[in-house]
Design goal:
Layout: H1 3-12, H2 32-47, E1 68-70, E2 80-86, E3 91-93, E4 96-111, E5 116-128, E6 133-144, E7 148-154, E8 162-163, H3 169-178
Antiparallel strand pairs: 1-2, 2-4, 3-4, 4-5, 5-6, 6-7, 6-8
Domain Surface-adhesin protein E-like: 77-179
InterPro entries: Adhesin_E-like (IPR031939)
Protein name: Surface-adhesin protein E-like domain-containing protein
Length: 180
């Protein structure tokens, strides 16, 4: 068998001939899988969505107004961001106490009576400490936290005392008023 025929035969079996003999006229085989991967990566990079903007940290609750004390037993993981009881407004009459409570809300809520929104509420409550009972007497809703910019005032329709179970809102209000 002649040399060119032998090279052709070996080349057809997958062997590479020396560059000067049979491989002169054939183009060299390129590393196509690497090129394909690079092309796919480039295309996917162009289709990638932008990273979401960082979420702004929620604004911290404002400090309590002067003369108000924080309610430590109040659960602030839900709609209420902070709550305070007014020390100087406390009235004691025998076994009953009256105290103002201020709640700052995480998000404003609609006030149907006015069409406005409230970000805080302040109300006067009456508390029977020994019996663990309370009732709201009057209240007002405000457009801003810490009872700023009034939007609506009301007197509750229900005037009966309610149980103030520990761990509930009423229980937290009673604990705050009765601890002063």
């Amino acid at each position: 068998m002649s040399a060119p025929a032998r090279c052709r035969t070996e080349a057809s079996r997958g062997f590479r001939a020396a560059p000067g003999i049979a491989g002169m006229n054939r183009p060299r085989r390129r590393n196509l899988p690497g090129c394909r991967l690079a092309l796919v990566a480039l295309l996917l990079a162009g289709c990638a969505t932008e990273a979401p903007a960082p979420v702004a940290a929620p604004e911290p609750a404002p400090p309590p107004p002067v003369g108000w004390e924080s309610i430590p037993s109040l659960n602030t993981s839900g709609d209420i961001v902070s709550g305070y009881v007014q020390r100087r407004g406390l009235v004691r009459a025998g076994a009953v106490r009256r105290a103002w409570i201020l709640l700052n809300l995480r998000e404003p809520i609609p006030i149907p009576e006015t069409g406005g929104q409230a970000h805080s509420v302040r109300f006067m409550g009456e508390y029977r400490c020994a019996e663990r009972q309370w009732r709201p007497l009057e209240g007002a809703w405000f457009a801003r936290q810490n009872a700023q910019e009034p939007v609506h005032a009301e007197r509750p329709r229900r005037r009966d005392f309610q149980a103030a179970t520990p761990g509930t809102l009423g229980g937290s209000f009673l604990d705050a008023a009765c601890s002063l």
